[in-house]
Amino acid sequence: MKLTRFAFLTLGVLAGISLPAPKARAGDVTVKGSDTMVILGQRWAEEYMKKNPGSTIQVTGGGSGTGISALINGTTDICQASRTMKTAEKEKLRERFATTGVEIPVAKDGLSLYVNAANPLNEITMDQAKQIFTGKVTNWKDLGGADAKIIAYSRENSSGTYVFFKEHVLQNADFTPRAQNMPGTAAVVNAVGKEKFSIGYGGAAYSKGIKILKVKKDAGSPAIAPDKTTVQNGTYALSRPLFFYVRNKPAGDIKAFVDWVLGADGQALVEKIGYFPLK
Amino acid sequence: MNKPNRAPFVAFLFATMCAAPSFAIAQGAPPLDAPPPPADAPEPPDAPAPADPPAPRADSTPADGAAAPAPNLSDVAAKVDGLEEAFNGTKATVDGLSKLKISGYIQGRLELHEISKSGVDDAGKPLIFDRFYVRRGRLKALYSGTNAEYMLQIDATGDGVVLKDAEASIVDSWTPFNFKLTVGQFKVPFGYEVLQSSGDREMPERSLYIRSFFPNERDRGIRLNASRDWFRFSGAVVNGNFIQDSIYANTDPNGWKDVVARVGGDFDWLVVGISGSYGKALNTTLGKPAVIGGTDANGDKVLTGSEVSITPATPTTYTAYLRARVGVDVQTYFDVPGVGGLALKGEAALSRDRNTGAPSTLPADPCKDVVALGWIVTGVQNMGDHFGVVARVDQYRPNLAERTGCTASLAATPTSTKTTTFGFGLNLYVSSNAKLSVFGEKVTGRQDIAPTDRYDDRVTVQLQAKF
């Protein structure tokens, strides 16, 4: 039967094409995603490659959303994310790879509120932060500070930090359009460090040149700074896990790298960078 | 007064100055934020004597021949302010554009049919069905604004350009139920395969029974989606006639609207849903105009008298009937170690059309009922990141209703009638933008009950490119 012959011939050709899967090189692992985690990921990669000559770990940022898209598109092996995957993203991953993905917590972070080092404010309530970033409060005098306009720095919506902040601080309300979106946490820190009357948010590891505010869950709660104890035991209101996402249960080079990250060496590096180990 | 937008520009200016250090040196000002030299750093060498100033440009020479004044800080500040305004304008434009997502895909296809043969049929239609063609050429625009969503999708193929989806939506950001209310043209919310994108589907076409129950999958109406945690709901009120209807396209021929809904649960590796629809449809027979003809019996090349015949006109007739469908769908996802993701999907639906041959005002007559059943089982095994194998079995039984005691004129398709299709295919994901596929389909049972006129054994080779 002509169709049967044609079908087998075509299937054979297709199988032949597909067998040498276009993987760059054995030992290569690509990591993409969260800007909050990019420095951490790069340090992990550097140390891992030192200890495992011949392996190559390529780490790039772009934001958690960008990393998850890359995971769905098959253009990265590991996605770094500072938020959990959304339902729509999980559905896309299932459609393309017939898998639900594997979520691996690799570190903890205390999402921090930054102000300029010259700002006299030392603590803030969750509600005050919401009021500022939704545009309800626009002057520092409303928080007991100087009579100066508040300049709010936020992140692009591809950022996991942006999503986490919107969900947990703004309770899904919209950011004020006056908030300026910065391309990364480093840019937020840089801007807050230069602008006396500004406020921004980002990972706890970025503290150079700015002041990290203590956070109160509400007006009657104690003000808590994000440190190892408060983040790990969850008493800091904005504690969050940082994740690796992979499509399937890790195997081969990916498993070796993930195991190392979760091991003593990888977790020690977490603390050195300024984040908090899992335990 | 503060300058809230200044910081990015200071950074920009700094970067610009770093890129052109001669500018900063020429102004005699240190670079912004330049780190102090380390204490143990060697003394910098004496600055070289400045070279002779370059000759002034002809177009910058003042009329009186005096040297042009050096720009001062206020000039630079004014320039930064200008750049700042320009940047804010550009940023606002880019921010707006980032909410607009354009996507699309093209499926170029080769189809080879078992029943193809040379020649034409009695009506002059070719009997060769082997061909290259563009199966789908989709272009989609999605704009997600504040509590609103715009979505338009068209399909451009050799048959023309057709509107597929046009959705105007209000998106809830106030409640935890993620409500989304849509008015327009959309896929009816029933089961799994109807809603699955043709760009994602592992087989080239939907199953036979899906195509029979839901021709073109889309209708016009109003739809409400809601979800919270594992709960999923999608319900719609639609015209009930689907789009591209050969008789009633772009209109609703009856006052009834169909209700369609799916309620389900998404438990990550397990997704389940039950669906139902209820409405009224028309069974229409188009009328024909009178036809005058005849036979030239005496060969005088003139039709006269008894040689002339008239076929009288027939009026258009229609009957309204009730149409109800129920369905269930299940999808499961597993990770096969060392191989890849495995998806097993199953779906079934039962359709009952009541009194299809008589006005619905008459008493119910089981002789005029049609009960149809369809089911699908699909398995998809990914192998690594670039390769996927798919197998699908689907069956369509167009009539399950026993019609014992009915008159011969109401004799139905035998209840044993069924069409079963076995499909197998390979998908090679060349990159995130390209998918090369080959499929084989073997059809058993009746082949003439399909909604399209050719439903036979076939091989399909397809290249899909998307962006």
H/E series of chain A, N to C? Answer: HEHEHEHEEEHEHEHEEEHEHH
Low-confidence stretches of chain A: 19-24
Oligomer: heterodimer
The helicity of chain A comes to 25-40%
Across the major sheet of chain B, the strand order is 1-2-3-4-5-6-7-8-9-12-13-14-15-16-17-18
In terms of DSSP E residues, the strand content of chain A is 15-25%
Tally of alpha and pi helices of chain A = 10
Largest interface: A-B, 51 and 53 residues
How far apart lie the N and C ends of chain A? 64 Å
Outline of chain B: globular
List how many beta strands of chain B DSSP finds: 18
Which labels suit this protein?
heterodimer, A: 279 residues, alpha/beta, five-stranded mixed sheet, 10 helices, 21% strand, globular, B: 467 residues, mainly beta, 16-stranded antiparallel β-barrel, two-stranded antiparallel ribbon, 11% helix, disordered N terminus
Describe the secondary structure blueprint for this structure.
The complex is a heterodimer of chains A (279) and B (467).
Chain A: H1 2-18, E1 28-33, H2 38-51, E2 56-60, H3 64-73, E3 78-81, H4 87-97, E4 102-110, E5 112-116, E6 123-125, H5 126-133, E7 151-155, H6 160-168, E8 180-182, H7 185-194, E9 198-202, E10 210-212, E11 214-216, H8 228-232, E12 239-246, H9 252-262, H10 264-273
Parallel strand pairs in A: 1-2, 1-3, 6-11, 7-8, 7-9
Antiparallel strand pairs in A: 3-12, 4-12, 5-9, 5-10
Helix pairs in contact in A: 2-10, 3-4
Chain B: H1 6-19, H2 21-27, H3 73-97, E1 100-113, E2 131-145, E3 148-157, E4 160-171, E5 180-187, H4 208-213, E6 218-228, E7 231-238, E8 258-266, E9 270-285, E10 291-294, E11 308-311, E12 317-336, E13 340-354, E14 370-383, E15 387-397, E16 419-429, E17 434-445, E18 458-466
Antiparallel strand pairs in B: 1-2, 1-18, 2-3, 3-4, 4-5, 5-6, 6-7, 7-8, 8-9, 9-12, 10-11, 12-13, 13-14, 14-15, 15-16, 16-17, 17-18
Structural description of this entry:
The complex is a heterodimer of chains A (279) and B (467). Chain A has 279 residues and is α/β, with parallel strands linked by helices. Chain A has ten helices and twelve strands. In chain A, helix 2 (38-51) runs antiparallel to helix 10 (264-273) and helix 3 runs parallel beside helix 4 (87-97). Mean pLDDT of chain A is 89; it is low at 19-24. The radius of gyration of chain B is 35 Å and the shape is globular. With 467 residues, chain B is mostly beta strands. In chain B, the strands form two sheets. A 16-stranded antiparallel beta barrel of chain B has the order 1-2-3-4-5-6-7-8-9-12-13-14-15-16-17-18. At the A-B interface, helix 1, helix 4, strand 8 and helix 7 of A face helix 1, strand 12, strand 13, strand 14 and strand 16 of B.
